[in-house]
Amino acid sequence: MTLRYGARRIRCRGFWTTPTCLNASQTPKVTVPWQRCRSVASTPNAERVLFPGALNSKFTNTIEFLRPTTKDAIPTYRVMDQYGKVIDKEIGTETEDEEALSLYRNMVCLSMMDVLMFEAQRQGRLSFYMVSAGEEGIAIGSASALSPSDVIFCQYRETGVYMQRGFTLDQFMNQLFSNSKDLGLGRNMPVHYGSSDLNIHTISSTLATQIPHAAGAAYALKLQNMQQPDIPPRIAVCYFGEGAASEGDFHAALNIAATRQVPCIFICRNNGYAISTPTSDQYRGDGIASRGAGYGIDTLRVDGNDIFAVRRATKEARRLALENGGKPVLIEMMAYRVGHHSTSDDSFAYRQRVEVEDWKRRDNPITRLRKWLEGRRLWDEGKERELRSRLRKEILLAFDKAEKGKKPAIKHVFDGVWEELTEEQRWHVEELRDILERYPKEYDIDAHEEGLDSLRELEKGGRR
Amino acid sequence: MTPKTPSIRALSRYLLHPQSSLHSRCQYRAQSKQYSSAAPGARLNGTVDYDTTSLLHHTSRSTLSNPELPPDVRKGQTKRINFYTAVNEALRHALQTDERVLVFGEDIQFGGVFRCTMNLATDFGTERVFNTPLSEQGLVGFAIGAASEGMRPIAEVQFADYVFPAFDQLVNEAAKLRYRAGKTGVHCGGLVVRMPTGVVGHGALYHSQSPESLFTHIPGLRVIIPRSPVQAKGLLLSAISTNDPVIFMEPKVLYRAAVEQVPIDAYRLPLDKAEILKSGKDVTIISYGTPLYTCSAAIAAAEKDFGCSVELIDLRTIYPWDRETVLESVKKTGRAIVVHESMMNAGVGAEVAATIQERAFLRLEAPVKRVTGWATHTGLVFEKFIIPDVTRVYDAIKKTVNY
Hints:
The complex is a heterodimer.
Chain A: H1 2-16, H2 33-36, H3 97-122, H4 136-144, E1 151-153, H5 159-165, H6 169-176, H7 210-227, E2 236-241, H8 248-259, E3 264-270, E4 273-274, E5 277-278, H9 279-282, H10 289-294, E6 298-303, H11 307-321, E7 329-334, H12 353-362, H13 365-375, H14 381-403, H15 423-438, H16 453-463
Parallel strand pairs in A: 1-2, 2-3, 3-7, 6-7
Antiparallel strand pairs in A: 4-5
Helix pairs in contact in A: 3-4, 3-5, 3-13, 3-14, 4-5, 4-11, 6-14, 7-8, 15-16
Chain B: H1 8-16, H2 60-64, H3 71-74, E1 78-82, H4 83-97, E2 101-105, H5 120-124, E3 129-131, H6 136-148, E4 152-156, H7 167-174, H8 177-181, E5 192-197, H9 212-215, E6 222-224, H10 229-241, E7 246-251, H11 254-257, E8 259-263, E9 275-278, E10 283-287, H12 291-306, E11 310-314, E12 317-319, H13 323-333, E13 336-343, H14 348-360, E14 369-373, H15 383-386, H16 390-401
Parallel strand pairs in B: 2-3, 2-4, 4-5, 5-7, 6-7, 10-11, 10-13, 13-14
Antiparallel strand pairs in B: 1-8, 6-12, 9-11
Helix pairs in contact in B: 4-10, 6-7, 12-16, 13-14
């Protein structure tokens, strides 16, 4: 009774109010097939189902279950083979030599920073680190094919996206060492980067929570693209792993992205492992790509070791995402997680060392691009040595500078929780300041910028 | 930073030859920077010592003197094990003795990220001990369903910080199942949801939270937080055998740090009793989990400095909780302090303090003091300023006694 009444009221309102339009000249004309359907069952002679939930389904009198295991797996798109040879010479790589060199340098820089920071964590110089080994091409390749104004949501293994967009070595190191120049104010674990200048949201350790955010942000961009036709249109891009795709948030996100037709590229990095859990324990369908069709989303599977394929797929996905006002696209980038999950993990507890060694030898996004560059005589051993020597100096310089930096001011314990300090928090600030003043030897206050003054200032500011 | 940290020059060399590690052996979790380490000149902070604390049983005799243990267990043997091994032994015993018991969660098949389920899949088979896909709502809901059909599932959520996708399942399903089913008699007793909780020195926003008070606001759930290996083993076995759904929160910093003599035999500990860890006459401190060690160190310093006598109570079962033991103690001492890691507002301390003022008002000689996390999140480098430390508990004792 109540439910029915509620439903009617909603429908009435919808019927009587004039549809609001954001920009009269830009009325989006949407006539999608399912809006034309009559919600009545079909007549006995109809050949197609008219149930509202499955349009254009033909009747059949043979009982035939869909058996996904009998179908061929979704193909994996690549541009060059593992020897760096381009397969379709006519299409080519769609990449200028200078750009390819720059992509290569970034991948090498990322891998060198990873090696150093992993070892530095082992030495106890920072609390945590995550390497991108095996997935450098996905992050750097896809980021290079986007517009800098596109909004990005990352999971946590997308350091390459930040690097390609222009996050500097100093910025990486400031975050990793949680010093006062860290844009996250020393609050987040290492590798939880964020940058509003680069339009990348700050990383959260929780898995998959960013996927519905990307759908919502893309919807905001869709409306803004319509409201501001003079500004080049933007899309949202969301990265996540195949493990995260098991969370409810993934399914909710793709579904709502499809129903609202949002301009968003969902990029799944399928690296074979969620910490220790292999894909065989994670899902039984054909990867993550097979799910796209279930939500009515255009989908492609790509060889993540092939940076040219990653770039081409991302570029094409971006074009599709902006078609007719917007629609979501799913790309499954295939890779192998060469490194441990993080510095807190020893992956040889659950996979064979030889499996990793085999993968390293077989294929790798960096060596594949190097083979291509060498094939075009753009690269050689001398250039490699020179690059590595230069990067080594640059990375260590940033490392040293950041490690010596002071910690962020103590006021950042409290600010930023709410927009303004609450009364309760003011009590807490006072209590903490009082403790720190009366027990100065118990705390290393001088390690923090401005010492106790920042708390006193916060207290005064609150009283105003 | 340890004095042995290699120089930048050594790191630079390492970058040239990454094959050879700077250390002879690259160990799992070799070292981890502790942002919460005490200042060099500290007298109070940094005095929690798990090797000597009186809260852990360092001898077999001390363990077996516990009157809560069944008589036959008290005549048996003990062995020195850490917290995660105690959890492992409880799970092993449950799997061995009851074929309805299942153990599952993310990454548990290889032993779990905290090693609590080591060798269980090998020994009991992957029909009963298995990896689930990465979905907390899925695996907790799955556990509720299995429990409602007569199994005794023990589900692991990798971190308490990641339990929230399963909140709906716990609050609206696990907690309400028996009540909703009425005369049909269906319930999900036997369900235990285990999760590592609390700060660890470098967990930041998403590996530090203690969300127990969110679950103590839900009728139908039991919330348990053990403080030590002996407690973990006994309380976990009771949790598995009780016919109510249980949230079992394991302080993750204790997994390796807390080591004590634990009875080899299986035993259960009561789910309706707080435990007086140290008797005293001037003030009662009520706490649970990791902060008990902080309290113990603060009490030692305060008793020495102020000549006062402090009683320490471990709540153990956070909900439903043992009001009687707490009220009796406070009626005796006339003063109370509640200590926990999670923030003050609507925390467990609020409930304990309110109950004390309701039932022991006329005996109070000072307001009930709460020493808790502040109204903020656990920022990585700020943990040491946010979570109650020895200094803050010491100061609270001083203020409460001198009120």
